[in-house]
Amino acid sequence: MKKIFFTPGPSHLYSTLSRHIKTALTEDVLSISHRGEKFHLLLENLQNNLRVLLDIPKDHQIFFISSGTEAMEVTIRNCVQKNSFHLINGAFSQRFFEISQALNKEAQATMITELSEVKDLKVNSQTELICITQNETSTGYQVPIEFIYKIKNKYPNCLLALDTVSSMPYVDLNYSLTDVVFFSVQKCFGLPSGLGVMIVSPQAIDKARYLLENNYDVGVIHNFTKLSKAMQKLETVETPNIFALYLMEKVTNDFLQIGINNLRQETEVKAKLLYDFFDNQAGFDISIKDKRYQSQTVIVINAETNKLNGIKEIELRNNIVIGRGYGIYKDKQLRVANFFTHSIADVERLLRLIKS
Ligand SMILES: *Cc1c(COP(=O)(O)O)cnc(C)c1O
User: Fold this and answer.
1) For a substitution probing ligand 1, which of 11, 64, 65, 69 has the most ligand atoms within 8 Å of its CB?
2) CA distance 282 to 197
3) How many helices (H) and strands (E) does the chain have?
4) What domains does the chain contain, in order, with CATH numbers?
5) 3-class DSSP state for residue 166?
6) For 77-125, how does the pLDDT look when each residue is reduced to its tens digit (9 = 90+)?
């Protein structure tokens, strides 16, 4: 029996993937030239799908790179001459902060969990870029979208970068208030890993060009200026992951067919099932108490040791894989992925098994 993965990434593949993988082979997609007509068309269709699905404005550009982690580095190099500011809510926002430090920037950080309101936030006046991990996969802490827009309104001259790796395409953004939004595809898209996507504003493109022209190290291969030039010709800087791009084009078609609002609503229904269940289950405890900050796509649960042992049994007997806590929380928490690939029936089955 095939396994079902409730892990937060890589996760369970989207249900249509096995069909699309077969078609990729029969259509010889994996051997086409990345400079040919067929590839141009693929890239164009994929971009159009993403624009419709996520409602991306015309003046924002879409770039394809290799991962979410790479996106952090590309973002810092291309948007920061000297000063970045980071809101920390777990290990991935910490990684973003450390990448900025490693690039010799003056990176400042504040724990978002200690802020109750945007008016308490103090970002120093030199700041060029504010970095927020909208959905922190390590802790299950989501930053409410209104909170993010308030920050942009408070600091309109700072660029704003959002890591949405584990919430896209569930998260519904107004891109005119963001400068860099990035994600990879092995989480909520239900695709194999190895592809990162960046959605970049004209202001961020301008900043990157300014830095390039003034001899700052914006990166040689994946800088915004080069990525943008290639994309205008419907090309990529390198021979890209054509397989991943192909599968993403197919899966975004499937999402469009079902309707993004339906998928988003279903995600919220499943999140409620999960939170309500663990709220009432002895030996388990929801890690993020305040509902506003509870991630809809990665549900983090504190669990007693005997409960975790029980979960191990359930996994073995039923071909289920559930995520464990991140880092030091490995033996203390569960992280349950709630992505588009997980149906309401899948979640109900999971909860039935845990209950018994
Ligand atoms: C998984 C994850 C990343 C890292 O993405 P990769 O594609 O694995 O490099 C970054 N940020 C968040 C919030 C993540 O969940």
Assistant:
1) 69
2) 40
3) 11, 14
4) 4-12+260-355 (3.90.1150.10), 17-257 (3.40.640.10)
5) coil
6) 999 999 999 999 999 999 999 999 999 999 999 998 777 777 788 999 9
